[in-house]
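Structure tokens please, single chain.
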Amino acid sequence: MSHPYTAVTIVVLIAMGIGATLKKSSEWNEVPLGAAKLLLQGRDIYKEMSPYTYPPFTAFVTIPFTVLPPTVARSIWYLVCAAALVYTVRKSWQLAGGPRLEPIGAAGTAAPRDHWAFLIGHAVALQLALNGVTHLQSDTLIAALLMAGCGAMVSGKYFRSATWIGLATAFKATPLLFAPYLIWRRQWLAATWLVCVAVGANLLPNIVHAPPENRTWLGEWSRQYLAPMGDSNYMPGDWKNQLVNNQAIAGAVKRWLATTWESGPHEFKVSDRADKASPATIRRAFYASCLAVTVPVAIVFVFRRWRKTSGGPGVNRGSGGTANESEPEPIRETETLPSALMLECGIVILLMLLLSPNSSRAHYCIMFLPAFCAARLAVRRPRGAVAVLLGLAVIFSTLSIHIRLPGTMAGEQILLWVGVVMFSTIFLLWACTLALMKSPARDRRE
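Here you go.
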């Protein structure tokens, strides 16, 4: 078969589509669609729909589906999610410098090690992405918008990039992390435009109905979910989500310091510890953990800026320069490796997940770009540190697979309590950061 990836994709998505269409109810019908109906009726989407924790833009864009029968609406939304996932995978592979994969064996298509890189990237991200499609989450659409933004960034079209990423931010606030990244790249106007797009999109629901006291829905969301984070008794990890499903750093810190678990053959229960740490202690542990993750990344970013401006080690001095010993092996004319720009974008994406107050497994569908970047570099030097870290990311991601058998339920929940998805993300972050540190200071594709 010359197109195995296409064939497998079609079969899997059709099978999942049948399941999504035939199920009698779904989280999407009950939460985003339910919030859209409340918005049309002028009712309070945050007080009357407590599971709805998203910015109001999600409810606004779901309004057209309210006039359709639930099964039809669910089927159309599934097609949107599936198309977004396909686009995300294809665009991520392209941005990672991946060559054409199919038809296999044809002239100009990928070498065997590129196929290995493609499969390894899937081993990290695919099962998490399918979780998002199964639950009809908007995360696959967010991932597609982020990849469109990264693609525009590669072309130097920063305002277009900010528009796409701003729309992703409108759905879920975490892509706002790209704003300080754009500032770091001295794209001040693009960073400002990103914020304007995100805020402007979330003011649109007021056109339908204003919340009580003629406020804005964006303000209501901020008061409901952002303002409490500044309270002295705020507990990181608190969110309207099962604690074991929150695989961000905040969720892990709260689980480790405030809860314990009990398991039987067919059950798993998380409960508060009698000696649980105080909210202040948990906040300090959370902030320290965030610093431990971000400081090494910041050091590498600053180091690369210093190499660019000072002509330090690893700077490419034109096409006639020679490679420094600390650089990766030279790129052959027929091979395009991930650029430093895409490694940086991948790092920002991973930090979005880790630093968020809540990152469910479905949110991790955006990991394809950093996974492909690390995989394409790792297969060139399979004994290097990047390959080792990527291997650990694959192992921990695989441990998070939900088999859904009675005998495996307790073990799967224990692994989630430990934070296997979070650790997979951290290992992938370290792999991309190490690869970025070793990349040339000046990349012609940045």
